[in-house]
Amino acid sequence: MNIHGGLYGSALEAAAARSSYSDVKMLLDARADVNVQGGRYGSALRAARSRDHEDIVELLLSAGAKDDTDVTNGSDPGNQTKTLGA
């Protein structure tokens, strides 16, 4: 569950990117690291934000995700991926 690597960096980031609320919740309940960094989006929170999955964003934040994205000034790497159409 906390194995890192691959396209999405972690199972939690992959679930957040796929908009799988139930999978994200299951992984969090199983104590997945909510702040793991890496993968295509950099984190599960960035993945959820870049895909406009607000319910998952709220779930991750309530689980303690560090809000290191600042979409107001364009410094969110996930937003760059979204802009590029990936």
How is the biggest beta sheet arranged?
none
Q: How many structural domains does the protein architecture include?
A: 1
Just give the CATH class.
Mainly Alpha
CATH topology heading:
Serine Threonine Protein Phosphatase 5, Tetratricopeptide repeat
- Shape category: globular
Oligomer: single chain
Helix and strand pattern: HHHHH
Class derived from helix and strand content: mainly alpha
Write down the Rg: 11 Å
Terminal CA distance: 25 Å
Q: DSSP strand (E) fraction?
A: under 5%
Using DSSP, what is the number of strands?
0
CATH homologous superfamily identity: Ankyrin repeat-containing domain
Structure in words:
- This protein is mostly helical and 86 residues long.
- It has a single domain (11-73), classed as Serine Threonine Protein Phosphatase 5, Tetratricopeptide repeat (Alpha Horseshoe).
- The chain is built from five helices and no strands.
- The chain starts with 10 loop residues before the first helix and ends with a helix.
